[in-house]
Amino acid sequence: MRFKVGCGGFLGIVFGCALAAVPAFASGPFTVVADGLESPRGLTFGPGGRLYVAQAGAGNGTASGKITEIRYPWRPSPAVHDVVTGLISVGDAEGGIVSVAGLSSIGNGTIYAAMELSNAGTGFTSLLGHFLKVSQGGQIRDVSDVGDFDYAWSNQHFDLAPHDFPDSNPYGILALSDRLYVANAASNTLDLVHPDGTEEILAYFPNNVIADATPTCIAQGPDGALYIGTLALVDSLVFGPTAKVYRVDPAQTDPNSFATVLNVATVWASGLWPINGCAFGPDGSFYASELITSSAFSGGDVVKISFDSPGVSTSLAGNALSFPAGVAVGPDGAVYVSNGGAFVPQGQVVRLTNH
Fold first, then answer.
1. From the CA atom positions of the chain, what is the Rg in Å?
2. How many domains does the chain have?
3. Distance between CA atoms of 151 and 238, rounded to whole angstroms?
4. Domain of residue 290, residue span
5. Most exposed residue of 59, 121, 190, 238, measured as fewest CB within 10 angstroms of its CB?
6. Distance between CA atoms of 246 and 169, rounded to whole angstroms?
7. How far apart are CA 315 and CA 287, in angstroms?
8. Contact by Cβ (8 Å): 136, 106
9. Best CA proximity match to 165, nearest among 1, 2, 11, 4
10. Which residues pair with 288 in a beta bridge?
11. CA 20, CA 241: separation in Å to the nearest integer?
12. Is residue 33 part of a domain?
């Protein structure tokens, strides 16, 4: 997970860059579904009881990024196998690992995946920053270079975030039958990717008091609108829970109007710890993984928010998770989360027992 602030910067001052001293996995109200995963990120359910998880890999310029299928994750011993392997995995200045991050699937079993960063920002020639389409058999098609597109946009609008721009980090995605959406955690944008690979900026998420919003996930609500969670990491460390969930009505977007791009997103929920993944459940409730729940940089959780009461959130994991990432909700309402999605060598997919 890339936070865009290094150990020599503000985060280093806040917690002394003691990321090597992260806690071991604790027990809690959850059951381990798959273990020994490398930097697990996005989760998505496909047809036939298939749960897919993105693994960002080991870093160090290796080809260890992958997409893994967990068949029947509610069973005592689910079958686990890799669908895609060999994706580039690199480290960053903040001690994190970047590779494949967001995952989303549509009804026929097609998976869409977002690769982090951009070639323009890193100087690489690779799939970094690309939006990928993956068949159930593991065949990859490169849909869009959204990373470079957003990098160029942030450079053109440098004045929006002069301390961060130009930058790009496609992280959260949502695939619908006729539309593909990307949340870019570095350009602070919501993108629409068309079937032909062309991109448009639909919304920009404004800076917080100290640092930028860092949108990390997208989920479609019962009303058809898009709900985008933000990390707001630095501000949360200083001021307490500052992360927000924004609502964007696609019918109100106009990528040709810069004023609309800047103002179409409205706050739906606030006062949350840094959000690293989100999803809606079959009952219409919103679920968000909170990377941490303490200024001591610990205590990851998943919270449940009733669609009709966005001001109230309920803890589901008792702050017992370690830097959770993606969230997915099964047809039966069971909640799954990637545990250990950042800063720890190996992670898990777990099923929460309180939901």
1. 18
2. 1
3. 28
4. 10-37+116-127+143-352
5. 238
6. 19
7. 10
8. no
9. 4
10. 278, 303
11. 24
12. yes
